[in-house]
Amino acid sequence: MPRVGTGRMVALLLLGTLLFLVVALMAPWAWQQLRGGPPPAASADAARLLPWQITPLGDGLTEVFGVTPGRDPLARIERSWPAEAAEMKVALLRDPQGTLTLEAYLETVRAGFVQGRLVLTGAAEAATLQRWAEQATEREPQPSGSYRLTLKSDDAMQARQATLAALTFLPAARFDEAVALERFGPAPERIGSADGQVHLLYPERGLVVSLDPQGRGKPVLQYVAPRDFARLRAPLVR
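Below the sequence we write its predicted C-alpha cells.
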C-alpha cells in the first residue's frame, strides 16, 4: 500500500474536523426543515412565542406572543422582544376618511423559529389621538392613500402605554391553507373574499388567518381578545 505523507495526513485530519463541525452546526437547521418545527434544542420560551401558541386566560382573553390583547399596554411586548421593543416605532395612521389609528411596528421579530414583522394596534380616546395628530412631527403619505404621522417624543412615550387592542403578524415565509390547518387546527369558519383571499376564523382564540391561494401576497395573522372577535369578523362578511 502507498504511504500517506505526513503533510497530507494532517490535511486530511483538518478536512475531517471541518466536515464534522459543518455537520454539527447544520443538524438543528436540517431537523427544522425536515420536521417543519424547531430544532430539539429550542427553548420553552422560544416555543411560547410561536404564532399558534395561543393560551386562553378566561374572561374573553388570551395570551399570544407573551402579551394579552385587550389588557396589556403596547410596551409590554418588550417582555418577549426587549431589543426590538426598544426600537419600536409608534405612529398614527390617518385613513382617507380621516380616521386615526394608533399603531406600533417591530420591523423584524423571531416568533419561535418563524421570522416576520409585527404590527400592534393601540386603543386611545379620540381626543387624545387628535391631540397627538396635531403635534405630529412628520406626515408621510402611504400607497393606500393614508398618511403615517410620526409622534413627538413625549407623545410617543405616552402612546406606548396605550392598551394593546390587536396584533398583526406578517410572516416572512409564505404558506398555504393546508399548512395553516396543520398548525392552527380546523377553522370553525372559512370565508372567501371577492379578491380571492381565504380567511380562516378562530373565534375562541381571537384569530383570523388570511391567505392568498394565488400566491400574490404573504399570509396575514390577526389577533384580538376573543371577546372582541366581532371586530375582526365584521369586515369579512360585509
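The radius of gyration is 23 Å.
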